[in-house]
């Protein structure tokens, strides 16, 4: 609401301040929503459930250009349209604040980090209706989080999750920011002004609706069968191919090849979603132990947003100096690096218990050795 209505004309620095505050909220939710869902999920369908949380963003991607078109066609002054578009973002935020305050702390966090066995059992029964017992003496990790994050396993895994998210977001956000100028190149020069804006927005809605949205949900509903690593690997490989084609065959970026460009550009969006955009969100809460799960997820998301910033900032410069063809070739190279990170640094968490895949079992065994108790 501050971005929309408390930002004066040409007040770009004030807008940046409001967006910084917004970023704290979004950054916090990236770390918590995936972690909460992962810790409340069963091993068999954990990928689908965490993916469903993330894939709701696909409806937002589609709603953006559709709402924009609706406001433009309504005849509302364009100076007010952008304010309304920002203000609408307050609606889901208010819903999140209300319902998140009603959710209990996850039992896994209560037990493993806080050592509150009674609270963990109570919250589990409250949330699932299933009675259970827990023993804080054998199921609490007392090793400090600082000690855990210094371990080689944590650092290499974080490089894999944050690094692949960084590379994916560079391609995704940089690509999205540049999409208006790219799509504008497909519009005949005779179409100008508001009509040109409407046409590029329609192209954007078409790409999101036909390519991006199905990619999100196909990944979500197949990830527990195919696996995280194969989907992320396929996604990065397809991104590299589609970006490479657009970079090599630069004539596709013209009004003479609208259909061909939209097919290949749409393919890049499909495999971003049926690929690393979904999997980079699902991976972090699965591969880090409870005590640093939020930290690992937040740091991974921060790596992604760092890539988003660099992509948004540098892609404009790259495009201006090397042209869109050069930009696409660089995005293809970044996708290849993302593929390598995935293959070399990331495990396959499919249908594995969180304690097993995150290394928590080893922490509990180490705890038992130090205290002389028997780990479960």
Q: Could you characterize what this model shows?
A:
The model has no long low-confidence stretch (mean pLDDT 89). This protein has a single domain (2-103, 141-371), classed as Up-down Bundle (Growth Hormone, Chain: A), CATH 1.20.1250. It is globular and about 80 Å long. The chain is an all-alpha fold and 376 residues long. It has helices at residues 2-5, 12-40, 46-73, 78-88, 90-100, 107-112, 117-128, 136-139, 145-149, 152-184, 193-226, 228-248, 258-287, 290-345, 354-357, 360-371. The chain starts with a helix and ends in a 5-residue tail after the last helix. The chain has 16 helices and no strands. The longest helix is centred in the C-terminal third of the chain and has 56 residues, at 290-345.
Essential attributes:
single chain; 376 residues; mainly alpha; Growth Hormone, Chain: A; 16 helices; 80% helix; globular
Task: List the SSEs and their pairings.
Blueprint: H1 2-5, H2 12-40, H3 46-73, H4 78-88, H5 90-100, H6 107-112, H7 117-128, H8 136-139, H9 145-149, H10 152-184, H11 193-226, H12 228-248, H13 258-287, H14 290-345, H15 354-357, H16 360-371
At a glance:
The protein is mainly α. The protein has helices at 2-5, 12-40, 46-73, 78-88, 90-100, 107-112, 117-128, 136-139, 145-149, 152-184, 193-226, 228-248, 258-287, 290-345, 354-357, 360-371.
How large is the radius of gyration? 23 Å
CATH fold topology = Growth Hormone, Chain: A
Inertia-based shape: globular
**What CATH architecture would you give?**
Up-down Bundle
What number of structural domains do the residues give? Answer: 1
What is the strand tally? 0
Unreliable runs: none
CATH superfamily grouping = MFS general substrate transporter like domains
């Amino acid at each position: 609401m501050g971005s929309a209505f408390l930002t004066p004309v040409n007040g770009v620095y004030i807008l940046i301040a409001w967006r910084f505050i917004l970023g704290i909220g979004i950054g916090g939710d990236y770390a918590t929503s995936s972690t909460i869902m992962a810790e409340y999920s069963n091993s068999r369908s954990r990928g689908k459930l965490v993916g469903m949380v993330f894939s709701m963003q696909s409806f937002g991607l589609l709603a953006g250009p559709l709402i924009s078109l609706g406001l433009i066609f309504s005849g509302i002054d364009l100076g007010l349209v952008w304010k309304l578009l920002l203000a609408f973002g307050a609606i889901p935020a208010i819903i999140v604040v209300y319902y998140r305050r009603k959710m209990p702390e996850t039992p896994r966090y209560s037990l493993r980090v806080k050592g509150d066995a009674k609270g963990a059992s109570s919250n589990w029964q409250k949330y699932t209706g299933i009675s259970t017992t827990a023993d804080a003496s054998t199921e609490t990790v007392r090793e400090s989080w600082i000690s855990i994050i210094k371990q080689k396993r944590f650092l290499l895994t974080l490089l894999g999750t944050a690094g692949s998210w960084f590379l994916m977001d560079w391609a995704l956000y940089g690509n999205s920011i540049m999409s208006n100028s790219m799509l504008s190149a497909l519009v005949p020069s005779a179409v100008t002004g508001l009509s040109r804006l409407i046409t590029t927005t329609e192209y954007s809605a078409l790409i999101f609706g036909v390519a991006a949205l199905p990619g999100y949900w196909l990944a979500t509903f197949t990830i527990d069968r195919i696996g995280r690593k194969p989907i992320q690997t396929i996604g990065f490989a397809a991104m590299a191919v589609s970006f490479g084609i657009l970079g090599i065959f630069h004539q596709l970026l013209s009004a003479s090849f609208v259909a061909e460009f939209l097919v290949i550009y749409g393919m890049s969006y499909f495999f971003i979603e049926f690929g690393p955009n979904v999997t980079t969100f699902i991976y972090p809460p699965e591969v880090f132990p409870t005590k640093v799960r939020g930290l690992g997820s937040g740091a991974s998301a921060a790596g992604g947003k760092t890539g988003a910033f660099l992509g948004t900032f540098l892609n404009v410069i790259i495009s201006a100096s090397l042209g869109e063809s050069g930009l696409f070739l660089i995005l293809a190279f970044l996708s290849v690096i993302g593929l390598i990170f995935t293959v070399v640094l990331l495990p396959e968490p499919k249908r594995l218990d969180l304690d097993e895949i995150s290394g928590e079992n080893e922490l509990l065994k180490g705890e038992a050795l130090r205290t002389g108790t028997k780990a479960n």
